[in-house]
Amino acid sequence: MKFFIDTANLDQIKEAQALGVLDGVTTNPSLMAKEGIKGEENILKHYADICNIVDGDVSAEVISTDFAGMVKEGEALAALHPQIVIKLPMIADGVKACKYFSDKGIKTNVTLVFSAGQALLAAKAGATYMSPFIGRLDDISSDGLHLISEIRHIYNNYGFETEILAASVRHTMHIIDCAKIGADVMTGPLSAIKGLLKHPLTESGLAQFLADYNKGN
Ligand code: E4P
Q1: Among the atoms of ligand 1, which is closest to the Cα of residue 136?
Q2: Could you tell me the distance, in angstroms and rounded to a whole number, from the CA of residue 8 to the centre of ligand 1?
Q3: Which residue from 89, 109, 140, 217 lies 20 to 30 Å from 127 (Cα-Cα)?
Q4: Which tens digit of pLDDT belongs to each residue from 148-204?
Q5: Is 87 one of the catalytic residues?
Q6: pTM here?
Q7: Would the CB of 83 count as within 6 Å of ligand 1?
Q8: Residue 8: which of 33, 40, 41 has the closest Cα?
Q9: By three-state DSSP, how is residue 123 classified?
Q10: At what angle do helices 40-53 and 10-19 cross, to 10 degrees?
Q11: pLDDT digits (tens, 9 = 90+) for 36-68
Q12: What's the rounded Cα separation, in Å, for the pair 212 and 102?
C-alpha cells in the first residue's frame, strides 16, 4: 500500500518524508490556498519545491473545467517535473483529458470520485490513479469504505491497472480499513499517518525496558 500525504505544507511533507514511509503527495486548490500559495508562478514553484522534497508522485490539480484548458494546464504542469501527476476532475471533459494524457504516457489522477460508475469511467480512460473521497461520503452518512470495496471488486473483475487512491482519509482507522479492503494507495493528513505509531503497550513497554536498563547501569 502506498502512503501519500494530502497537504501542500512543506514542513509536514518534510516530516513525513523523514519518517521513511512516504510514497507521494496529493494537493488540491484548497490545500494550496490554505498555505497562502497564490498566482500561477508561485503555484508552479511550490509544486517544484514539493517534488524536490519527495521521491514519488506529486498530484497537481488543474483548475480548468474544459478539455482545451485542462490539456494546456496539464501539459505545463507535466513539463514542470517528471514526478508531477495531472489531477483532473471527474467530469466529462476531465475523462476526455484523462484519455488524452494516458495515451501520451503522462500520469493522471482522476479526482472527486463518489461512485463506482465514476470509478469505472476513470479506469476506462486509463487513469493512473482514481481518487474516491471516503471522508466526504462519511460526512453525508454514506459509507465511504463500502465504495472502496465496490471499486476493488470491479477493478479485480477486469484487471484494471488504475490504482485506487483512497482520498479524503480523515483518521488512522480509515487507513487500516482501506488496507484491509486492498486500496492501492491512501492519501491523508500527517496526523493520520502518525496515528498508526501509537499503542499504549509500546509506550509502557519501552519505558519499562529503559527503566530496567538504567537499574543495571
Ligand atoms: C484528494 O486528493 C483530496 O486532496 C483530499 O483527500 C480531500 O480531502 P478532504 O475531504 O479532507 O478535503
Answers
A1: 10
A2: 11
A3: 140
A4: 999 999 999 999 999 999 999 999 999 999 999 999 999 999 999 999 999 999 999
A5: yes
A6: 0.96
A7: no
A8: 33
A9: helix
A10: 10
A11: 999 999 999 999 999 999 999 999 999 999 999
A12: 58
